[in-house]
Design a protein that fits this description.
CATH topology of the largest domain: DNA Cyclobutane Dipyrimidine Photolyase, subunit A, domain 3
Bound molecules: flavin-adenine dinucleotide, ligand DLZ, iron/sulfur cluster
CATH architecture of the largest domain: Orthogonal Bundle
Number of strands: 7
Distance between the termini: 65 Å
Largest sheet: 5 strands, parallel
Order of helices and strands: EEHHEHEHHEHHEEHHHHHHHHHHHHHHH
Number of domains: 3
Length: 504
């Protein structure tokens, strides 16, 4: 009685639930399929990362003595879908059951629901226990009213895990040290270099395949330097903890021309495909603080991103889907501007973030939220168009984490489930956190007109257009107070500038 154990491209973890209990005679199935490489037009680096990491993981399992059946993208007879390849493999191996870990995307979850009846054998869908908070546990917290805001969920998770806790309270006497964080970057401070990994023979072969089949997707493949095995991902993590973590908190929100990584971890792709686990990453960061190698404001800020935000958005995704993706609270309808695909723009901040995205399949959080996300929010881009963009262009993009971040955090399309108010900002915020404005051909000082920073008038225009939905939001009362003090003439000038820009 052999069990076919299907491992998906974002489940590359040795301790995965579907690999536990492996017995002689069982077969691990891994499949490269056209449906997954093209359901959106992924950045070529994302495809290369996943396929190469899958091939390395299969080798690793074989070295540990497991039998692995690995189907390559160009193999003859490849049906191109998970369902098709699973059916073929069941026949090939005469399997009597299938085991698989729950997937990271709703569309695959729905697909898996058909497998038992289609294949006419038992299909065991096991919990993905690589997260701190299971789907069921999160649903329980929703019922207890503990997931209204990320901050309360995070505190609950600190208590449950004991991370950065002492005598039942938070280490350092506070849950959050953001007052010490978010500084602008001093001009003389050089960030550490990015750790790049030279492609080995397996990666070289994948790079050729990707260049051959996906060269029409947005993004550069040259300079591919991602870690593709657990060993390399651990080296990347050690590099981050030693070189960048100590300053992570201070400069978490900073942006600088030509500096694409600053003090960020660049570990989200590894976490999301399973080369690193959330608990080991948090444990190592906490150990750095315990050993005196990183300050508490940095380590707490970092742990909050993973134990707090990452778990919170996953919980929202699985408790709110499939309806979550359908809402459009601000009724945003505009098409995604061509500059997101690299068309020339005078906006230096947008041009920098999109350049980094194209070159690296990466932009850091504040670039995603306060530049490209903020622009899409203020310009009223249709949520499904900007969501698709984020899902396509980042190496770490999987719907469970991408959708709540874009739909909820950046676009406020969920009406406030994820965040109590939209992260809308004018050019002043971007200027405070970056050196972008000094190199821009728009003027930050001008508030309206052809040469004014577009973020300035788009910000007020957004508030005017959405006054019926946001005007009574307690957290925006100050801003709306300022808007209401503007003369009719000033408001009309804002609307005129915004229309001219957006229609242009
Ligand atoms: P660091 O800044 O070093 O942070 C450390 C880790 O914290 C990250 O690796 C990540 O695992 C976690 N983290 C931080 N913020 C978040 C968050 N808001 N949600 C979930 N995890 C978080 N993250 C993704 O993993 N995939 C996405 O598709 C994705 N899309 C995003 C879209 C938008 C509009 C926004 C605003 C954020 C998005 N994020 C996404 C969250 C965040 O921007 C990335 O996790 C981060 O930039 C990854 O780079 P890093 O590893 O250098 O992160
Ligand atoms: C993203 C991706 C890509 C590009 N290719 C594959 C693939 O060929 N085989 C595979 O198993 N997984 C791939 N993935 C990741 C899947 O899309 C991901 O596992 C599902 O979306 C579930 O989260
Ligand atoms: Fe961006 Fe405005 Fe600054 Fe130019 S002036 S870089 S458009 S915020």
């Amino acid at each position: 009685m052999s069990c076919l154990r299907l491992v998906l491209g974002d489940q590359l973890t040795r301790e995965l639930s579907s690999l536990r209990g492996y017995e002689d005679g069982d077969v691990v199935l891994m499949v490269e399929v056209a449906d997954e490489t093209t359901y959106v037009r992924h950045h070529p680096q994302k495809i290369a990362l996943i396929l190469s990491a899958m091939r390395h993981f299969a080798e690793d399992l074989r070295e540990r003595g497991l039998t692995v059946d690995y189907v390559r993208l160009n193999d003859a007879g490849n049906t191109g879908s998970f369902s098709g390849e699973l059916a073929r493999a069941v026949k090939r191996h005469g399997a009597s059951s299938v085991a698989v870990t729950e997937p990271g995307e709703w569309r695959i979850w729905e697909m898996m629901g058909d497998w038992e009846s289609d294949l006419d054998l038992p299909v065991d869908i096991l919990e993905d226990d690589r997260f701190f908070c299971s789907r069921t546990e999160f649903a329980g917290l929703v019922d207890q009213g503990k997931t209204g805001r990320m901050e309360y969920f995070y505190r609950e998770m600190r208590k449950r895990t004991g991370l950065l806790m002492t005598d039942g309270g938070p280490e350092g006497g506070a849950w959050n040290f953001d007052k010490d964080n978010r500084k602008a970057l001093p001009t003389d401070l050089a960030p550490p270099h990015r750790m790049r990994f030279r492609p080995d023979a397996i990666t070289q072969e994948v790079l050729e395949l990707v260049a051959d089949r996906f060269s029409d997707h947005f993004g550069d493949l040259d300079g591919f330097g991602w870690a593709v095995s657990r060993k390399e991902a651990l080296r990347a993590l050690r590099h981050f903890i030693a070189e960048a973590l100590p300053r992570f908190g201070d400069y978490q929100d900073a942006m600088k021309t030509g500096e694409d990584f600053l003090f960020h971890g660049l570990i989200s792709p590894y976490l999301n495909i399973g080369l690193l686990t959330a608990s080991e990453v948090c444990d190592k960061a906490v150990a750095a603080w315990e050993n005196g190698d990183a300050p508490l404001n940095a380590v707490e800020g970092f742990v909050r991103q993973i134990l707090g935000w990452r778990e919170f958005v996953r919980g929202i995704y699985w408790t709110e889907m499939p309806g979550y993706a359908q809402s459009n609270h601000l009724n945003a309808k505009r098409d995604l501007p061509a500059m997101y695909w690299g068309a020339k723009t005078r906006m230096h901040c947008m041009s920098e973030c999109i350049r980094s995205t194209r070159q690296n399949a990466y932009a850091h959080h504040i670039q995603r939220l306060m530049v490209t996300g903020n622009f899409a929010l203020l310009a009223g881009v249709a949520p499904e168009q900007i969501e698709r963009w984020y899902l396509e262009v980042y190496a770490d993009a999987f719907e469970w984490v991408e959708l709540p971040n874009v739909h909820g955090m950046a676009m406020h399309a969920d009406g406030g489930r994820l965040g109590s108010k939209p992260y809308a900002a004018s050019g002043a915020y971007i200027d405070r956190m970056s050196d972008y404005c000094g190199a821009c051909s728009y003027s930050l000082k001008l508030k309206t007109g052809e040469d004014a920073c577009p973020f300035n008038y788009l910000y007020w225009n957004f508030l005017i257009e959405n006054e019926d939905k946001l005007g009574n939001n307690q957290r925006m009362s100050l801003i709306y107070g300022n808007l209401r003090r503007k003369s009719d003439e000033a408001r009309a000038e804002i609307v005129r500038s915004a229309r001219a820009f957006l229609d242009g």
